[in-house]
Design brief:
single chain, alpha/beta, Rossmann fold, 4 domains, seven-stranded parallel sheet, six-stranded parallel sheet, 45% helix
């Protein structure tokens, strides 16, 4: 028996009404739909006597008509006149792929889920229906920079928009709330916490709300890359505001995250739009940097890339506030017009740095991930990651801020082994609000995905598309990535690193597993070394440092510890003697310093670090 709603006649009537309101069907089609509805009502009344037969008669025409009407047509001649006028006022000559369906769904009062990559025009999906409808559109975003940027652009176009943020003065906020209460506004931009203020909520409730748009909707998913527990309160806004429709928007959502967004926000049979994730004009490079001199090579790589004719404007993402300040100062010392940006700066300094980059007074901005969402500088030519990001979703969203003008751009990830310790600490600290393992598991899943991307011997672009469940083949408009078409600077960095590793008797790459010698050769391909191919263990010293008697005693204790951890398997499956000797001499105290030991990788840290640190602490 076909799956049908509880009342298929009422459901179809709603679809027809929405499609007519959106200009999605012609008058002749509407008349046909009306006649079909009359026939279906008769069948529905007769169902008590023969439910299966009636369902059989209803199913085919109902499903066919729903399929035809539930996919609104592009807003050309059939679009509401108000929508065409608004698009003209906003300077929009044509819609990009995927924008038409959520716009028409909003006008028809239907929920929607919009998953479109950064730079593909998600904002227009709620902006256009906001000014083409008679009610109020409320846009909730966690990003004040995004709110400010959108507000200023729309206000400059003479459109009735208001924002309410913590950066406003008391007078500005009061005036905005008063305008909303008087019905003078069609689009309100705000952060989630605004609804904790009764005056703001009352002002919004004084209007009929046509659309509630939740931007950066992945924040409501515990498996999203930027989960925020406070975002779970957004689901209750449907009850508070009673909007005709809800629209959830995100740039980075795997199918599983999309499903959770739909459930968390209680989207009702949403129109789902998932445009392709590929950014054909971007080239993706991963540069592995480890061993002695890695930091110097990292700086040389960044300086060379930014000095290229098409190297700037550029964003350099850093993992910590301290690193952000160090990179900004280092770039300034090297002659670049650079500024730094992170959430710990005073508001005036942070805003000044943003304005300098947006206006072109600065060519490079070094920043944490607090910068970028909603920042619409379209001519960014390079996005560099000084540190390994915490997730592939976050990396791709940040990389997508390059080349938004459609011209060639470059995304470069500078990957150092030391960064893995920071990510492991980040994962271990995620215990979740209830002390459970959900958040920690999510962090480890994200860690494994970004590490797999770095270690992948295949096309970077295809690896990204596979992660997001995009079945389309990778199709670069120019150069693709360091695997498919390595540029000269990446090849030089790889050759330099290989030479240094070879001279030191080790070729450990980022994330290389510990044990019997998983390693990386030239070109980044994984190779396996036989036990007798490895350099003999150094008995008397480690890295040229003589082992003191207490180090020798600790080494023997570590060998006993390793035997227990091996649990009957060969000892080298835990780690080699050389690694144990280095640990005995250096006595690392955290994951980052442990990862600096040759022959120790993330898998070792994840499985054995807690037990190992207990041994080292007892020996201290």
């Amino acid at each position: 028996m076909p799956h049908l709603p509880v009342d298929p006649v009422a459901d179809l009537a709603m679809v027809v009404a929405r499609a007519e309101a959106a200009g999605g069907i012609a008058p002749d089609d509407a008349s046909t739909a009306d006649r079909l509805l009359d026939a279906l009502r008769d069948d529905w009344r007769d169902m008590q006597g023969e439910p299966r037969a009636a369902l059989g008669r209803i199913a085919a025409p109902l499903r066919a008509r729903r399929d035809a009407l539930d996919a609104p047509a592009p807003p050309r001649g059939g679009a509401p006149r108000a929508l065409r006028e608004v698009l003209g006022q906003m300077g929009v000559e044509s819609l990009r792929p995927g924008q038409d369906r959520p716009i028409l769904a909003a006008l028809a009062g239907a929920d929607s889920l919009v998953v479109m990559p950064t730079g593909s025009g998600k904002s227009l999906c709620f902006q256009a229906p906001a000014f083409a409808s008679g009610g109020l559109t409320v846009v909730v975003s966690p990003l004040i920079a995004l709110i400010q940027d959108q507000h200023d652009r729309l206000a400059a176009a003479g459109l009735p928009v208001a924002m309410v943020t913590s950066l406003q003065s008391g007078r500005e906020m009061h005036d905005a709330i008063a305008r909303i209460a008087r019905g003078e506004v069609r689009l309100v931009l705000c952060a989630p916490e605004r609804f904790a203020h009764e005056a703001f909520t009352r002002a919004v409730q004084a209007n009929p709300v046509d659309l509630l748009a939740i931007d950066e909707a992945h924040c409501v998913s515990e498996w999203g890359h930027d989960f925020r527990p406070e975002s779970l309160q957004l689901a209750r806004l449907r009850e508070v505001l009673r909007p005709r429709a809800v629209m959830a928007l995100t740039a980075t959502a795997t199918p599983a995250v999309s499903d959770e967004i739909t459930a968390r926000l209680a989207l009702r049979d949403p129109v789902t739009v998932r445009t392709g994730f590929d950014r054909p004009n971007l080239a993706f490079d991963v540069v592995r940097l480890d061993g002695k001199g890695a930091v110097a090579r990292k700086w040389a790589m960044l300086e060379s890339g930014l000095s290229a004719p098409d190297g700037t404007p550029a964003i350099v993402y850093c993992g910590t506030r301290k690193a952000t300040e160090e990179v900004a100062e280092g770039l300034q010392a090297r002659g670049f017009r650079a500024v730094g940006y992170h959430a710990g700066l005073p508001d005036e300094e942070r805003i000044a740095a943003q304005d300098a980059f947006m206006s072109g007074q600065a060519d490079v901005i070094a920043a944490t991930n607090a910068f970028g969402m909603g920042i619409d500088r379209s001519d960014v030519r390079g996005v560099w990651h000084w540190s390994i990001p915490t997730s592939l979703e976050g990396y791709y969203q940040e990389a997508g801020r390059g080349g938004r003008d459609g011209l060639p751009g470059r995304a470069v990830l500078l990957a150092m082994r030391a960064d893995l310790g920071r990510l492991i600490r980040f994962a271990n600290q995620h215990d979740g609000p209830d002390g459970g393992r959900v958040a920690r598991d999510r962090a480890w899943t994200a860690y494994r995905a970004i590490n797999a991307y770095i270690e992948s011997p295949t096309c970077r672009r295809q690896a990204i598309l596979d992660h997001f469940g995009d079945a389309a083949p990778a199709a670069a408009a120019g150069r693709c990535c360091d695997v498919c078409d390595p540029p000269a600077d990446v090849e030089a960095a790889a050759a330099s690193g290989s030479a240094r590793r070879a001279s030191s008797g080790s070729a450990s790459g980022v994330g290389a597993s510990s044990g019997a010698g998983s390693d990386r050769g030239e070109g980044g391909r994984s190779i396996r070394l036989r036990r007798d191919d490895r350099a003999p263990d150094t008995q008397a010293s480690v890295d040229g440092v003589e082992m003191a008697p207490e180090d020798e005693r600790l080494f023997e204790q570590l060998r006993e510890w390793r035997r227990e951890r091996a649990d009957g398997k060969p000892a080298y499956t835990v780690c080699a003697d050389a690694a144990l000797r280095t640990i005995a001499v250096r006595r690392p105290t955290d994951e980052a310093s442990l990862l600096d030991v040759k022959g120790v990788g993330p898998a070792f840290v994840e499985r054995h670090s807690a037990s190992l640190f207990d041994v080292l602490q007892q020996a201290a």
